[in-house]
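ok so I'm stuck.
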Amino acid sequence: MSARGADTPAQAERPREITPAELGFTPQPAVRWLAPGVLVATGVKALLATIFGAYADKRELQGSLPARVYRHGDDETGEVWFDFVADLGDGFNATYTVASLLAADELDVPSAGKLPRGEMLIMGGDQVYPAASVTAYRNRTKGVYAAALPHVDGKRPTLYALPGNHDWYDGLTAFLRVFAQGRPFGGWDTAQTRSYFAIQLPQRWWLFALDTQFDDHIDAPQLAYFTEAAKQLREGDSVILCTPSPSWVDAHTSRGAEAWDTIEYFDTTIVRPAGATIRVMLSGDKHHYSRYAERGGGRQEVTCGLGGGYLTTTDELPESVVLPPPTTRIRAAGPSTRYDLAARYPEKRQSRRFAAGILRLPFRNPGFWGVAGIIQSLIVLAVLYGLAGPFGDRPRGFFALVASWTPAVLLAVLVVVGWVAFARLDLRTSRLRGTVFGVAHAAVHLGLSLAWGLLITELYRDVIPDDVLSNWVSFVVILVGLPTVLGLVHSEVVAVYLMIASRFGINLNELMAGQSIEDHKGFLRMHIAADGTLRIYPIKVEKVCRRWVADPDGAPGDPLLRPHGVQLRPQLIEDPVVVTPRDEPNR
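replied:
not stuck anymore, here's the structure
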């Protein structure tokens, strides 16, 4: 690799300009999730991954790879610092802001003091967007993190990664090449050989990271790996369990209950038989922070997907959840316990205010504007054909009437089906409610199309002079002006729909994906003390940096780029979360 690439050695020349040639990777803008190309490509890859994943499960093949249980912590002090970040490989500004904070020797956080960099970094899923490839990982993740920490003198931090759904879109091919072959990310070492791992921590703490492939199941080689690792567990040990998605949030839904049953099965099969207890669950996938605390107990369920992906809302989160849910199919499941929502970021009121930002939809996603204009123009032209034929007399006779309106009717059916499917994207949405909102949304678009057709018909008949129709102006207006105006108007109709539907729990993800909010990012810094106490520091940065300059004269371990004109200000989302290990009989 080039001396300025992601594996930059200490003696390599530091970049003097922010260019791909100097950096060794190409910084990427934030993904425009409602751009038609991204929507289609991501949808197709997700569909193919779901269909073929069951027949070509890369996890089954990993059984032939070396199986190791890793160990981290200071043998002298019995302590360890480590970090957790998830949903990170999106736009450069957000991802590099978080990476540079993670890479710092220490963070001076108000009300928390100086927090040293973690000995290990756990990436909790979705390390790249919109879909995995070696090139995408280099430009959106590996190059970014190597630039943040190009070199370390002495003991280097170790990076572990758990795949999320976007990492799975190519069947884990690129993920395994990037994270499971021992290749460093600048100053970060990698050690894992599979897409899942077990780490022994000080004071009888363990970290297990499960690869559940779209919340589907745990494969046999993975179960065998954790069964073997669990032989090292002792009565009273505490476990931190990392999963690709926070299944506890949706455990009350049918799809969520299935995902939770996978976790419950792992607990009843691997953890509890060894006498250990899951004390903390960590996940990303949802691009916000939330924490559910066990009522009457100390277990914590933490979601932190603030590593770089677009921000998502928190106002729809349930105030409490019951785990395992009453509908669990695991016969050996433990007693149901209620967990209360103890903290969230952004706050509920702030989260609701973000909804209005979707009104910038056509400007944040110009491609959506363009495609909406083309589609709506076709519908309006079909309506015009039905109203008056191809700008001629009205059709006469029943069969002529049917023939003239057939294109408009067919397009109308496609519009209704499309918007109903859009409203039912979220599996948590009631099918009936999604159908009602989808039909209502389609009706607005179709009503506007009919109104546009009537307006244009009247203009051509009574207002526009005949001589105008015979020149090129009319042609330009129809081919350029009509799609531009219709695209803008109908894009705003979609934006207003998303604002309204989100209040009823519909298309919440699309509401925020269409905005691609890069601010409000963060991660978790954790510390296991000599007395066995685990402290979780949820760290946020309200504003990401959008202007960077090269630092050619910096020390080998300094970030290759530094903020220009701003200072990154890490803060606590909430007071440190304190988790004590379960009382042990022999203590």
